[in-house]
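Structure first, sequence second, as always.
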């Protein structure tokens, strides 16, 4: 049953909302794809960089071969970089630094290209001192390393020594090739990988949403069935649970199918339990109705015989006369109790109401007039709108509702208490309110005052006359049953000095001639 005040959410609504299984699956799949894209991009970047740097290294080996192997026609190492290493045909940006055997700088240069008049020429420019200082730290062992040269950028450099036939160190030479083109290609690769990764993530989101939505359709159908069952009134009456999960969604070979199969089994058990409960309630109602009906005749006989003794009570002893008066009073009280139980049993089994437009103002006026006659020691007040308020209902049952509420206020409040009855219109409903200024209802029983045989003797003081009256503890239970049969509601709020019973009933539009209202003279 749907909790009061809650609004059922249709199955499938907000399928990718926060906290849903579909959203978590999409997020996780997307995260995995994004992680895979990042790792793949990183691996591609590192592999590409290694290949490009290796290619530059091969070019660097070709450049340095002229000096390291002079017999191969690469030139004389003693002629300097501008004529030996730095010549047209070498990659633009190639640099060379030659140090003497004592570590002093002999020469340095970098091959640059200049364009003029649609022609190009190659020149050698000297290196800045900061770059020479950085190259001086390169080890002359033939190994290649990457060096960031101030003002020139990143270079792949290699150093080696030149010795004479005696093994004496003649020169230390450092040769380098620029990595600018390599870095430029790597930047383009990173940009391309970022675009491809973003496209892969977007494709993963779109694809996973489609796959997840289709994969969760059986689960959504199971949820829709559960939602439909949750909106059925299961608290009373005969309940037909004809709703079941479709057979295709109750296949135990899948996870969702096992859930659907278990849900169908649960519905079968619930249906059996509800049927057993309904049968038990029907038996109890029938027993109460039969017992109440059968008790009416014996109680009527007891009351009759007790009334016959009234003429002879003067000749009885005082104790016997008192006992007979109590027998008569309790028989009368029990008769009222039996009548109330019989009425409740009829209402539970399906009330037979004569529904018609009823002027609630008239009903309240008549009920308050009766209550004033029964309780002249209370202060009675009326608060009615200028126009008749017409509700759909059974006139006599609605009169009983108002009369019971007024009797409850009269019975459980001390003399001098102010009791007020009002009628109002609220939207499409009519509202009848009965308030009193009595001591109030204890807070711990306010939520069960409409249950049968609920009493509040501690706080709601009973008047002496009510001890022998017709109070049975069923008055408010009858009020709740009659109001519910009219598709209305009744509520109570109470604190010391103010107790209010509010009855809400469907509003009807009065047609035909204006309804006559009885006189309110002497009521308030």
């Amino acid at each position: 049953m749907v909790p009061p005040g809650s609004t059922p959410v249709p199955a499938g609504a907000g399928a990718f909302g926060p906290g849903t299984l579909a959203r978590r699956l999409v997020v996780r799949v997307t995260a995995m794809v994004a992680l895979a894209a990042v790792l793949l991009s990183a691996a591609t970047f590192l592999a590409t960089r290694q290949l490009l740097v290796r290619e530059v290294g091969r070019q660097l080996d070709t450049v340095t071969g002229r000096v390291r192997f002079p017999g191969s026609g690469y030139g004389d190492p003693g002629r300097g970089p501008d004529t030996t290493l730095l010549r047209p045909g070498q990659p633009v940006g190639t640099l060379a630094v030659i140090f003497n055997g004592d570590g002093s700088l002999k020469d340095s240069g970098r091959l640059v290209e200049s364009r003029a008049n649609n022609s190009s020429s190659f020149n050698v420019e000297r290196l800045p001192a900061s770059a020479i200082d950085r190259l001086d730290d390169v080890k002359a062992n033939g190994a290649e390393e990457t060096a960031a040269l101030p003002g020139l950028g990143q270079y792949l450099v290699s150093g080696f020594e030149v010795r004479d036939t005696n093994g004496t160190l003649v020169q230390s030479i450092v040769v380098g090739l620029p990595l600018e083109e390599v870095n430029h290609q790597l930047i383009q690769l990173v940009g391309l990988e970022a675009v491809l990764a973003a496209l892969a993530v977007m494709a993963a989101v779109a694809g996973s949403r489609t796959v997840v939505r289709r994969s969760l359709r059986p689960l959504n159908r199971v949820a829709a069935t559960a939602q439909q069952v949750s909106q059925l009134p299961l608290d009373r009456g005969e309940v037909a649970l004809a709703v079941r999960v479709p057979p295709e969604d109750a296949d135990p070979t899948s996870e969702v199918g096992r859930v659907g199969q278990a849900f169908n089994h649960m519905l079968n058990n619930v249906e059996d339990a509800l049927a057993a409960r309904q049968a038990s309630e029907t038996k109890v109602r029938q027993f109460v109705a039969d017992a109440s009906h059968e008790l009416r005749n014996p109680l009527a006989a007891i009351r009759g015989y007790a009334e016959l003794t009234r003429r002879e009570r003067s000749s009885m002893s005082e104790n016997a006369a008192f006992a007979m008066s109590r027998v008569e009073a309790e028989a009368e009280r029990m008769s009222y109790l039996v009548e109330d139980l019989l009425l409740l049993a009829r209402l539970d089994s399906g009330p037979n109401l004569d529904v018609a437009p009823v002027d609630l103002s008239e009903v309240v006026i008549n009920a308050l007039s009766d209550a004033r006659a029964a309780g002249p020691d209370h202060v009675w007040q009326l608060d009615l709108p200028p126009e008749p308020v017409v509700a759909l209902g059974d006139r006599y049952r609605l009169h009983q509702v108002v009369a019971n509420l007024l009797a409850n206020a009269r019975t459980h409040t001390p003399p001098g208490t102010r009791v007020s009855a009002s009628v109002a219109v609220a939207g499409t409903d009519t509202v009848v309110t009965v308030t009193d200024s009595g001591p109030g209802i204890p807070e711990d029983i306010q939520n069960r005052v409409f249950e049968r045989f609920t009493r509040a003797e501690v706080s709601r003081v009973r008047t002496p006359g009510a001890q022998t009256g017709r109070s049975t503890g069923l008055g408010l239970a009858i009020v709740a049953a009659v109001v519910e049969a009219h598709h209305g509601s009744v509520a109570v709020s109470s604190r010391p000095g103010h107790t209010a019973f509010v009855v809400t009933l469907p509003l009807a539009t009065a047609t035909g001639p204006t309804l006559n209202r009885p006189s309110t003279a002497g009521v308030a």
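Margin note: Residues 38 and 202 are 14 Å apart (CA to CA).
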